[in-house]
């Protein structure tokens, strides 16, 4: 996809996030929206995947370490063709396979069950190591949150990945600077994030995580990097794309009511129309 096509798809992914969380009357829209462009780039441009063959042993792997932003992952998976888009409206409903956190046993396209923060990167490192041991070509991608990296297990996994030169591993930190209790530096500052990953022998790239041209350059650079895993520090806006949610910590884990839902969908409709004029 070119940049304009990716931008249009990201609007659809964001609509799916809002639809799902509103229907569930629960969920995490803020961090799903900040990472929507990352989900879109991974699933529609970067990763070697096939919705018709979701268990292909040669597929690239993705682990959503910050599993509470499942609405974003589910929307990307649905629009990619892993399951019907209308199923997003069953998010968190009794009997639905679309649980509040990713479930690898029931959701097509999900490579790892996640949601207990800090654990996903360890699983991703194991996948990357497995590929090395088997001389397989697949790459492993892991999306973490900037609040999540306050967990010590993240750095144990990073230390192992760096020491084993896992250049088939790409970690993306969704650095929207807000977690459930406030700004990340006020809760427990992980800054400088880039210097910490560099200390664990990562190749580090800082980008605007809501800009597809910058994401494209970063992921291309990651693939070209040898003998080091890559960490992409994606500077994003929490709630990106919905006017009243942007940079508002209160929208970390709250569903919009009917009136707010209408405003959010109208914001995204206008964004989509504007892109169609280009």
UniProtKB/TrEMBL annotation:
Domain Transketolase N-terminal, chain residue ranges per copy: 8-262
Superkingdom of source: Bacteria
Aminoacyl-tRNA synthetase listed as a keyword: no
CDD domains referenced in this protein's UniProt entry, alphabetically: TPP_TK
Alphabetical keyword list: Thiamine pyrophosphate
InterPro entries, alphabetized: THDP-binding, Transketolase_N
Cofactor(s) listed in the protein's UniProt record: thiamine diphosphate
KW Endoplasmic reticulum (keyword) present: no
Transmembrane segments annotated in the record for this chain: none
Classification via Gene3D superfamilies: 3.40.50.970
SUPFAM superfamilies assigned to the protein according to its UniProt record, in alphabetical order: Thiamin diphosphate-binding fold (THDP-binding)
Record PANTHER family: TRANSKETOLASE N-TERMINAL SECTION-RELATED
Similarity remark: Belongs to the transketolase family.
Protein name: Transketolase
Protein source organism: Agathobacter ruminis
Lineage: Bacteria, Bacillati, Bacillota, Clostridia, Lachnospirales
């Amino acid at each position: 996809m070119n940049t304009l096509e990716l931008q249009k798809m990201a609007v659809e992914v964001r609509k799916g996030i809002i639809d799902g969380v509103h229907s569930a009357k629960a969920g995490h829209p803020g961090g799903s929206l900040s990472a929507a462009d990352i989900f879109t780039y991974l699933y529609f441009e970067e990763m070697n995947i096939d919705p018709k063959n979701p268990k292909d042993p040669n597929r690239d792997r993705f682990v959503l370490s910050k599993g509470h932003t499942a609405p974003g992952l589910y929307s990307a998976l649905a629009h990619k063709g892993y399951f019907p888009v209308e199923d997003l409206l069953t998010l968190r409903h009794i009997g639905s396979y679309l649980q509040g956190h990713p479930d690898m046993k029931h959701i097509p396209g999900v490579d790892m069950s996640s949601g207990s923060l800090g654990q996903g990167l360890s699983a991703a490192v194991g996948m990357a190591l497995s590929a090395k041991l088997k001389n397989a070509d697949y790459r492993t991608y892991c999306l973490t949150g900037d609040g999540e990296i306050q967990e010590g297990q993240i750095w144990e996994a990073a230390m192992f990945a760096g020491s084993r030169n896992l250049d088939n591993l790409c970690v993306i930190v969704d650095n929207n600077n807000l977690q459930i209790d406030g700004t990340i530096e006020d809760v427990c500052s992980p800054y400088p994030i880039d210097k910490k990953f560099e200390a664990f022998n990562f190749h580090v790239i800082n980008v605007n995580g809501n800009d597809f041209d910058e994401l494209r350059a970063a992921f291309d650079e990651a693939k070209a990097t040898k003998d080091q895993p890559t960490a992409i520090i994606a500077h994003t806006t929490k709630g990106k794309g919905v006017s009243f949610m942007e940079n508002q910590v209160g929208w970390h884990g709250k569903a919009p009511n009917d009136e707010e839902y209408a405003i959010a969908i109208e914001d995204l409709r206008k964004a989509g129309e504007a892109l169609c004029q280009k």
